[in-house]
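From the pipeline queue, job 12 of 40. The input is one protein chain; the requested action is below.

Action: predict structure.
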Amino acid sequence: MDARHDAPLWEPGPERIAASNLRRFMDDAGRRAGRRFADFAAVHRWSVEDRDAFWRLVWDWGRVIGEPGAVTIAGGDRMPGARFFPGARLNYAENLLRKRDGSDALVFRGEDKVRRRLSWAELYDQVSRLAQAMKADGIGPGDRVGGIVANMPEAIIGMLATSVLGAVWSSCSPDFGVKGVLDRFGQIEPKLMLAVDGYFYNGKAFDGIDKTREIAAALPSLKRTVIVPYIDSKTPLDALPNAQSYAAYIAPYAARDIEFARLPFNHPLYILYSSGTTGAPKCIIHGAGGALLKHIVEQQFHCDLKDGDRLFYFTTCGWMMWNWLASGLASGATLLLYDGSPFHPSGNALFDYADDERMTHFGTSAKYIDSVLKAGLEPVKTHKLSTVRYLSSTGSPLSPEGFDFVYRGIKRDLFLASISGGTDIMGCFVMGNPIGPVWRGEIAAPVLGMAVDVFRDDGSRAADDEKGELVCTRAFPSMPLGFWNDPGEVKYRAAYFERFPNIWCHGDYAARTRHGGFVIYGRSDAVLNPGGVRIGTAEIYRQVEQIPEVLESLVVAQEWQNDVRVVLFVKLRDGVTLDEALIKRINQQIRANASPRHVPARTIQVADIPRTKSGKIVELAVREVVHGRPVKNLEALANPEALAYFRDRTELRS
């Protein structure tokens, strides 16, 4: 290892450690276990070895409202099949609406067009009124409520009102096309739908009424559509069957104390969706109790989220980080919501928001951090960011250079956490450790309660720094309840448990580090294998995107002469053309810092890189196009037109 990088980028001071939720939780756990936990590794070991004691303490620590029942885990050795708190009764919304005072619960910015805030009392009252209207409309336990919503207060209100009644919430971002929404809602058959009248992006308003009309007409299960005002669309609602404005829908109902339906721990709360880039999206069902406890662990222990903190995550309602963000209310945190482009009206929009609203927790993606770097922004020089003490990055691996930039260009005294998990578990496998050091390029630690490891192909445990499959060897509460319309759990079991029996195999290519952390090298199904050598795509991206002329890149394996070869596509800065000199510099960078095996056989310039709606590049879709095979679900992509740049490339014929 380079001596310059053999020291942590940041470490918490003794006072910060002592004041952390995690340190206090460790002390409580030690008293219950009759021993002292000296460090994170010790308490993590206990959390997976004595899961009964750990998850029972999480319930108590999180002051969960409800009845836990006498049993913590039944059938804990089965995966799937383990049942957590089988006798418990609770309501997710009740645990998020424990405050009713005049302080901020929700603050909202819709680019530079809309600003709003709701107090805890106002949020409670809005949920009360909407839940009454929905109940009068026949919505009850198990019914599905769909949301085509921006990341705005009504999305949170709609989800909470749904949970109050024991119904199931499922949301899409309003930029989804008609087919993209129907691919999802058509499977789960919602009874009621909340839809915004449009949305803003990059300063422009996009009307959504006509699209909603087409979607509603194609959903025979739908009994009511409620239109939420956002852009003040002038399109009349007349042609929308059984449609009402949000104001008219709740008008007959005055706020009153909410009657929360307390239901079993595993009562369905959410339906989330796989990206759907290789076929119809899988509908993943998550339970209320598992979501609540998992997010308490992640937010309070790993993010050090406390009552009164101000939590932000840059997300849409079509990404699981929105569901994760919503749970911050259970910790008494104010949610700072943002909808639209993070670069409108300028690249400082989110940093302005952080200063203006005293943000404590800044959540974003690795792509955003890289975009800030490429744009030449240095918030450390232009913003105070005095209240921001935690910065989180997910969506793709944060490169070591991304770590460097955060401390050089954003803030020097900051708890930086690269995190990784998935929609599949509505949470994380690996996250930050607020009482430990931040090491360059590493995700700090496994999440408490998660028996995370790395396996070789034969199912044996990989050594430190050896790449393999990211797995979880013991059951945990936020495992999906199953997939929608999956008799016998055939698809569910095939997705996670076929590779290694009774072991969750997540599909990430990863390695443990000597510091007790992890590095994610990309998705296993996108791993390159030239000459039988496995290469994670993130290893190449890290090198290529250090080249100043390169804005983004995407790499795939092309089938070639009874083997595969590495093909690199690059999106360059405006006015830059790929020439032999630039290709040579890219190859030298890769060869010197990765290996000769990583050097692409072909490097090709493209005008754009295709992404999912949540901003993840789609290596598998590009791989299909390169080989002349159809891409099964274009509606999953934010910019499907970009695939044309990869089709029939002459450079790939020789």
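Job complete. DSSP finds 20 helices and 32 strands in the chain.
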